[in-house]
Every structure is written in structure tokens, then in C-alpha cells.
Amino acid sequence: MTAVFLVASAFLASAVEFVEALTIVLAAGITRGWRSSLAGLGAATVALAVIVGALGPALTYIPISALRLVVGGLLLAFGLQWLRKAILRAAGFKAMHDEAAIFAREAEEARAAGNEQHAGLDWYGFTLSFKGVLLEGLEVAFIVITFGSTQGNVGLAAVGAGIALAMVAVVGVVVRGPLTRVPENTMKFAVGTMLTTFGIFWAAEGAGAHWPGDDASLPAVLAFVVALSSAAVAMLKRRRMAFA
Amino acid sequence: MRRIKAFGRFWWDFVVGDDWRAAAGVVIAIGATAALVAGGVDAWWLLPVAVATILWVSLRRETSDVTGNVRRAPGPRSRGALPRPRSRP
After folding, report:
1. For chain B, first and last CA: distance in Å?
2. Distances from the Cα of A238 to the Cαs of A87, A186, A241, B20, in angstroms?
3. How far is residue A11's CA from residue A16's CA, in Å, rounded to a whole number?
4. Cα(B59)–Cα(B52) distance, rounded to whole angstroms?
5. Rounded to an integer, what distance in angstroms lies between the CA atom of residue A15 and that of residue A187?
6. Cβ neighbours of residue A151 under 8 Å, at least 6 residues apart?
7. What does pTM read for this prediction?
8. Which residue of A44, A144, A162, A241 lies most exposed, with the fewest beta carbons within 10 A?
9. In the predicted model, is pLDDT for residue A212 greater than 70?
10. Residue B77, pLDDT score
11. Angle at A55 between CA A141 and CA A165, to 5 degrees
């Protein structure tokens, strides 16, 4: 059961980040040329591989309880951010994430930028693509390393991220435009509930508490977080209607 | 120096985000769980309760502008219909 949660969480979280990275790479490629954009993508991928290669094995030397305490705390803080914003979007208090609008804005900024060349590459296109992929990729790396190392299976978390990367890349090549049909808020809602669930579970274990039924209590924690979030959305919608 | 600051800013935004109180609440709740466990209480139930409370307080704070339940002094943010988005996700 935990393995399924692990792969599903890594897949969903990574897919959201890859969609955002794709939007930036497409904006840079279409407006500034594909050579520079793809060079930025490649350089960022190498940088990410170095970071993950250095950090991943280092984490295995940390005692598991300390790792679960720190990672659980980080995931909880991080997951609550996702969940809070997804709840606010679902209740209508915050605008939905619009990949088409972000693509249009990035493309406009890229068109307006000057034309500086370095090593035969358009520097703006390269750095836009590099920074976008590196930042989104760091978020994926954080999720894969923390999820994987805490469960003692970085490979399984990487499989989830890899499936997400392959799917987004294939769809990106086919569509050749921003992935506007991805139900991003729904995905973010799911990711927020899963990150918060794992955060609660691991942080409590890291602090020395024992869950009734051990790993079997994980679905119960997930059900609690989903119920809590759904209740929050329903309540905020009512508040919004009352004050509209 | 500028790059170090930007790097620190990235991780702050990434982990803590725009509501540091929620992150502080998480740290306090984990500390309280550890303290209770050290005192012989198996406090597995504390974090779910704490998360529900933190989420509730954070959402109330974020939506207070829209519902008119403003707790801070009037300013540019309290005039708008919706709170402006500050950071990802």
C-alpha cells in the first residue's frame, strides 16, 4: 500500500512540475529558437543529475528516525502550502493556475528581450529554459529524494517521476503548446493531500510516536486529510456565497 | 552574495511559502509530539489535530479580506476583492 502511495505521490507531484517546466521551455523555444531552449533544458538536466547524485546517497547515512522527523516536517510545511492554495482555488478565493496565460506572458517577455549571443546561443532563451527547468526540477528532486529515502526506496519514487516526465514529454511533443487541459488544480489538490498525509505520518513517527496498525494507518490519515480539505472547500464556498 | 541570497529565498519560498505561521505551527506541533512521547504519551493523534487547526487558521486569515472579517489595519490589500497571489504553488 505504501509503495502505491509512494509512486502515485511522486508521479502526481512531478507531473505538475514538469507541466510548468514544459510551458517555459516551449515559450523559450518558440520565441527565441529551439537550439538555445533545448541547450538550456539539457544543461539544467545535467545540473539536476549532479545535485541528485550528490544528495541522494548522502541521505542514506542519516538515521531513519531523524530523517523521518526532518523530512516529515518539511513535507508537512510544504504540503500544507499546496493544500491551502488548492482549497482556496477550489473555493473560488484564488484564480486557477492558467498555463495558457503563463505561456503567453513568458513568450511576450521573451520576444521583448534583447538579442545577446554567447557561445553561438541566444542567451535569453538559454537562461530562461535553464532556470525554469532547474527550479521545477529541483522541486521534483526534493520530492523524489525525500519520499524515496524516507521509505528506503528512492528508485520507486524515481519511477513515479520518470513516468510523469515521459508522459509530459510525449504530450508536449504531440501538442507543441502549453498543456492547458491538464486539470492542474485537481492534481495539486491530490498532491497537497498526499504530501500532508506523508508529512503527518513520518513526522509523528520521527518524533517517536507509534501509529495504531503501523503502515496500515496511512490510508486512514489520507482519508482524514481528504475529509478535512473537502470540508474546508465546502465551508469556504458557503462563506464566499454568503458575502458575494 | 546575491546568488546565495536568491538560493536561500528559493528554499524559503519553496518550503515555508507565504504563511510562515503555518510552518511555525508545524514545527511547534512536531516538538510537542516529541515532548509528549518523551513523557510517556504516545501522541500520534496530536499532528492530525494540529494540522486541522493550522489549516483552519491559515485559511481564515487568507479569506478574511473577501468576507469582510478584516483583522488588520485597512491598507491596499484590504480594498481588493481577492487577495493577490504571492507565490507558487
Report:
1. 26
2. 13, 20, 5, 27
3. 9
4. 11
5. 9
6. A2, A3, A6, A157
7. 0.71
8. A241
9. yes
10. 44
11. 20
Nearest CB partner across the interface for B44, out of A76, A211, A229: A211
* CA gap A91, A184 in Å, rounded: 15
| A219 contacts A1 by C-beta, under 8 angstroms | yes
Mean pLDDT of A176-181: 64
Task: Name the amino acid, one letter, at A23.
Answer: T
Task: Look at A84 and B33 and tell me if their CB atoms are within 8 Å.
Answer: no
Q: How many CB atoms lie within 10 A of CB A79?
A: 25
B44 to chain A, closest Cα gap in Å: 5
pLDDT in tens, A47-100: 888 887 777 667 667 777 788 888 888 889 888 988 998 899 888 887 766 667
Contacts of A95 in chain B (CB under 8 A): 82, 85
Q: Mutating which of A80, A198, A229 best tests the B interface, going by the most B Cβ atoms within 10 A?
A: A80
Residues 40-59 of A with CB under 8 A from B: none
Residue A35 has pLDDT above 50, yes or no: yes
H-assigned helices in B1-89: 2-15, 20-38, 46-67, 76-79
A88 Cβ under 8 Å from any chain B Cβ: yes
Strand partners, A118: A121
Instruction: Give the pairing of strands A117-118 and A121-122.
Output: antiparallel
Strand partners, A117: A122
Longest dimension (CA), chain B: 50
Residue recorded with cell 507531484: A13
pLDDT of res. A102? 72
Indicate if the pLDDT at residue B76 is higher than 80. Answer: no
Q: Which amino acid is at B49?
A: V
Distance of alpha carbon B70 from alpha carbon B66, whole angstroms: 8
Three-state DSSP class for A122?
strand
Joined grid coordinates for residue A22? 514544459
